[in-house]
Specification:
about 230 residues; alpha/beta; 7 strands; Rossmann fold; seven-stranded parallel beta sheet; single chain
């Protein structure tokens, strides 16, 4: 898919992976709308439209799609709020349940947005490597990621000829892990020291994978891993 002139909506598009994706889409000539609950945190982004939306509010989301339709590309890197962490047997179950807000947000985006997507349009959702290889304390992120990936596989045929794919990052150096870049880098380096590629990934590296599945018209219903060898180490 040539991105020149294509219209792309990116949820979670004002920080981290979402912002990197917005910038790469823009630089390849797409007309980009970056959407988040607090778009002001991104400041001004040249040649990018900023919009506010809570993806768990279906009425707000439907109104946004009505306003922005039609479009060719629909991406969500939105986290869906707080995620529970730690051992399952000690976990706050309300927090565990709340972690699935990410899945419900993705569900709303796809269900309400598909009607406005061009016939050969593309949807990309962001999951995470623990969906298929979880370490102790990752039950929430693993469960939600696994649900997202199975959701995509289950609906791919219904959406055809529109395409839908998942990109699954490993540990990526984003503000999700803390606002101080230096401290964040040190922390993540410790977590990834034993990876086959012994460093955290960058948002740009994940964004490159997102653009790959958007632009390759022969890819649908799949998960692309960007994890430094997490799954095979």
């Amino acid at each position: 898919m040539n991105l020149e002139g294509k219209k792309a909506l990116v949820f979670g598009g004002t920080s981290g992976i979402g912002l990197a994706t917005v910038l790469q889409l823009r630089d390849q000539g797409a007309q980009v709308v970056a959407i988040s609950r607090d778009p002001g945190k991104a400041g001004n982004i040249d040649n990018v439209t900023l919009k506010s939306c809570d993806v768990l509010d279906r009425e707000m989301l439907a109104a946004l799609f009505d306003e922005l339709a039609p479009f060719d590309i629909l991406i969500s890197a939105a986290t869906g709020g707080e995620r529970a962490n730690g051992p399952f047997l000690k976990m706050d179950l309300d927090g565990y349940q709340g972690s699935f807000d990410k899945l419900w947000g993705y569900t709303n985006i796809v269900r309400l947005g598909a009607a406005y997507l061009s016939e050969n349009g593309s949807i990309v959702l962001v999951s995470g490597a623990p969906a298929r290889r979880a370490k102790p304390g990752q039950v929430a992120i693993a469960s939600v990621g696994g649900a997202v990936e199975q959701f995509v596989r289950a609906i791919t045929a219904e959406l055809a000829p529109r395409r839908i794919n998942v990109v699954a990052p490993g540990l990526i150096d984003t503000p999700m892990f803390g606002p101080d870049k230096e401290q964040r880098g040190e922390r993540l380096s410790g977590f990834t020291a034993n990876n086959l590629i012994p460093r955290p990934g960058t948002p740009d590296e994940v964004a490159q994978a997102i653009l790959f599945v958007i632009q390759n018209d022969y890819v649908t219903g799949t998960t692309v891993d960007v994890d430094g060898g997490w799954l095979v180490d």
